[in-house]
Structure to design on (589 residues):
């Protein structure tokens, strides 16, 4: 069994929303849910492909300490995949397994533990505006009760790793996009998670900064962390010569363990010119 | 950089440090909207003063009822000149009852003596030749509870004992006082429920504002793997602290007020009088015991109410 496994995962934002609102937990709620579906469901919570699924029958496995790209055009379900990994989203069928554990069926009280084990970098950064760079990184350790001296040490380590030592007292809005991206990576890694998931880490960056971020990610991977990078940017993929999983409209279309991803190999993909 | 297993690394020390950090957060939260916090504290203070006033009233009424119920004891008179052996049977019947806490038996001679003393020197002279033979035995009984039904039951039983001529007790007074005490209890309970509801509402509003002001930060905390309890503690403490501060203020006001009222009302009354009120020294700890836990409880519940909906992983 692989370290991380997706098994026939289907995910629909509409059903996820309903579930969170408490629908579907009891017979009465299920009835209410189906009535709502009939009246307004599709219409109100429409998402993903034609049948409302953001992910459809997605299965793959990732080994410990692997470096994997998940690529696909915008709207294909990459972010959804990342959210599933920290239980920010729930599959409506199928399983997401990390370290032999189905993370969506385990009790809620294990969610914090999961999120400490899976460091994530999302496109919206999620930095706290009124805290400095160093404070933002320290925050991840503060909330789990790490000793102050340990926090200071780790924060310095992380700042050094992402090359932001001299910016430690800056506020997030004083940083460039590339710098913010690196702060977020530092915060995700400060608790030494076993897994790092980066969603569009080079999204809005110029090539120089993008390269820098990739170097940081690959160094993290060398230090025994499983790294998953979601991106629509095929140039960086070609640069790295790593395993590539392609996903389109919520469906996994190719999984190449061979080094180097050739766009031509995924014909319909490049034909439609969806990479931008 | 070596990977550590997360489960092992969550130690008690970490939990403790996390707790101390959330304590600091509590004060930061409070300083962020001082006006709302003060309003909540004032509300709690006001509510507890009102509630405490009723409590003071009830406590004093109860005190007087209890004293009054024992003040007019039940008196049982035998037929005049009853033989000692038959009087003994009446005494035994009374002693058998569990609710009799005090029994005094006066023989006809003792009654005559008492009678004489009551009349003073001149009267005593006129009773010179009066014979105890024409006087009854009397039994003075105190009951454990100032309960009129109990008194009536006792009266009914003792009337049936041969040799008993009359049972005298002031049922109306006992019943009236007892009813007053019960009414006060009900009114206090109603007031308590209403005021608690109001205080709960205000506190939960304040805490909700606190939570809302940091909604984004709470989301980030959850995303980074903070536990629910870590996120909730600052808001719980904020509510509890508001409740506690309000209670301390309310309790202080009540004690000061009671001091003045007590001085005023008791200026012409002896401490031993049956109308005597509860002195401040006894009242103060009682008030603290009522208001402080209540304030903290209402504060905590207020924040739980507003958090259940907002803070979920
Ligand atoms: N919060 C949401 N509510 C409803 N639909 C969503 C939401 N987020 C994403 N979707 C839909 O799910 C599909 C996959 O989105 P996403 O995972 O963000 O794609 P990607 O990250 O590859 O661009 C898209 O069709 C998108 O419109
Ligand atoms: Mg995305």
């Amino acid at each position: 069994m692989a370290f991380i496994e997706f098994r026939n995962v289907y995910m629909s934002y509409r059903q996820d929303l309903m579930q969170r609102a408490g629908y579907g937990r009891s017979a009465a709620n299920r009835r209410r849910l189906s009535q709502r579906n009939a009246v307004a469901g599709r219409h109100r919570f429409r998402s993903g492909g034609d049948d409302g699924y953001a992910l459809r029958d997605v299965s793959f496995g990732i080994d410990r300490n692997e470096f994997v790209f998940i690529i696909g055009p915008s709207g294909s379900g990459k972010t959804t995949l990342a959210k599933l990994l920290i239980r920010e989203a729930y599959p409506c069928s199928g399983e997401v397994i990390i370290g032999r554990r189905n993370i969506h069926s385990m009790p809620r009280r294990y969610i914090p533990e999961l999120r400490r084990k899976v460091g994530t970098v999302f496109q919206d950064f999620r930095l706290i505006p009124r805290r400095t760079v160093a404070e933002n990184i320290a925050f991840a350790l503060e909330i789990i009760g790490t000793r102050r001296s340990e926090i200071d040490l780790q924060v310095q380590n992380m700042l050094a790793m992402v090359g932001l030592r001299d910016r430690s007292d800056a506020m997030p809005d004083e940083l460039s996009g590339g710098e913010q991206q690196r702060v977020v990576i530092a915060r995700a890694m400060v608790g030494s998670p076993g897994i790092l998931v980066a969603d569009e880490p080079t999204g809005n960056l110029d090539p120089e900064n993008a390269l820098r971020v990739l170097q940081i990610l690959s160094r993290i991977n060398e230090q025994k962390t499983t790294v998953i990078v979601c991106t629509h940017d095929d140039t960086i993929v070609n640069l790295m010569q790593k395993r590539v999983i392609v996903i389109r409209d919520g469906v996994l279309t190719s999984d190449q363990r061979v080094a180097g991803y050739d766009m031509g190999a995924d014909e319909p993909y490049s034909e439609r010119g969806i990479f931008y | 950089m070596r990977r550590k297993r997360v489960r092992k690394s969550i130690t008690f020390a970490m939990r403790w440090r996390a707790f101390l950090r959330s304590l600091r957060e509590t004060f930061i939260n409070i300083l962020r909207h001082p006006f709302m916090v003060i309003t909540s504290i004032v509300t709690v203070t006001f509510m507890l003063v009102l509630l405490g006033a009723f409590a003071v009233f009830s406590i004093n009424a109860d005190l007087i009822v209890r004293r009054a119920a024992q003040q007019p004891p039940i008196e049982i008179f035998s037929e005049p000149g009853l033989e000692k052996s038959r009087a003994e049977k009446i005494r035994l019947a009374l002693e058998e009852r569990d609710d009799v806490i005090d029994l005094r038996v006066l023989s006809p001679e003792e009654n005559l003596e008492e009678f004489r003393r009551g009349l003073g020197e001149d009267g005593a002279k006129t009773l010179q030749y009066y014979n105890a033979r024409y006087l009854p035995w009397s039994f003075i009984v105190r009951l454990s509870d100032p309960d009129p039904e109990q008194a009536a039951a006792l009266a009914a039983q003792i009337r049936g004992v041969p040799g008993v001529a009359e049972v005298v007790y002031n049922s109306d007074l006992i019943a009236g006082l007892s009813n007053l005490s019960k009414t006060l209890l009900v009114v206090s309970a109603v007031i308590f429920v209403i005021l608690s509801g109001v205080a709960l509402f205000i506190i939960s509003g304040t805490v909700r504002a606190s939570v809302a002001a940091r909604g984004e930060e709470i989301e980030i905390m959850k995303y980074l793997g903070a536990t629910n309890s870590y996120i909730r503690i600052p808001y719980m403490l904020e509510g509890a602290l508001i409740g506690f501060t309000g209670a301390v203020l309310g309790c202080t006001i009540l004690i000061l007020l009671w001091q003045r009222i007590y001085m005023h009302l008791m200026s012409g009354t002896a401490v031993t009088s049956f109308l005597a009120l509860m002195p401040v020294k006894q009242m103060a700890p009682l008030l603290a015991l009522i208001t402080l836990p209540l304030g903290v409880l209402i504060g905590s519940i207020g924040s739980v109410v507003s958090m259940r909906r907002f803070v979920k992983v």
